[in-house]
Design goal:
Porin, Immunoglobulin-like, eight-stranded mixed β-sheet, eight-stranded antiparallel barrel, about 50% strand
Length: about 300
Amino acid sequence: MKTVVFLLALLVISSGYFINESFAEISENQAFLLEGSGFAVTEESIRVSEIDLGLSSQKQSGSTINFVTEDGFVTLDNEEFVISKLNGKFLRQGQYIRINGNIESSNGFDTTISFFGRLVEESKDASVYGFTGRITTPDDSYKVLYTTKLSTLSKIDKVATETKKSDQNTIHILKGSSSQTVTKYFSKDRISLEPGTTITFVNDDIVSHKIVSGAGLGTHSSVLSGKVVICEQQDTKVKAGSSYIQSNCDFTLDGRINSNEIKPGESISIKFTETGFYRLLDTNYPWMRIDGYVFPSSTNLVLGTTTNQQGN
């Protein structure tokens, strides 16, 4: 067991030596999605662990930018922990990430986490970090090893021309998106914007679509098979936009966004008024998802795009 732990740790830690001059594109007042998986290890066992966090960067001081965790969860095998109070820092222009704080189990027990990440590689759309650290539950203390993706969002200048603004504020429902065989369903599936911003959804598909907002669909949902239980009655006990819910539903509507039917070739404009995270999906094709965050103090509209990874 010790040999396995040593080799896993060596793999993650040594990856940091390949990033001597790499820096992630991190700045104030941005939203990020940190998604990944790895292992949680004790002397007796190795458990699969996943991490899914929504972050928002705060004020910069020197080469350090503080951030707060708005939403997310951490798993140990099939046990899920929701975010209680987590804070962190982007260090040395995003070369490192530190996360500390508390998460809460379904039984209400507090668990502490302490993670440290090193930038491994970056592209125009995302940055890859290798994380090590510890998860401490009331019963055990786990060493953790993660490989994660931090979604990168491109900024759009607000003084852009009206033509560019119109294009940037439009999300296309792509042709063929009603089938899981395609790799992309929306022209943009990661959005960050100011309160009061209007986004136009254009249906380029050959079937009708309906976009709603809600909570749920964490990584352990049945979204891959399409057998998702969607509850249309709003649950006031569920935090709007959260990724994890303790319910018989995989996804429950929160009442903030409802496009109703968008027929082929038609469009609808929707205003995002409330701050916070938005989880959007198509009720008939639940693999079609958009993650969004509305900033209370952002000065730029930000629209990002990724290749859809079903079930993430």
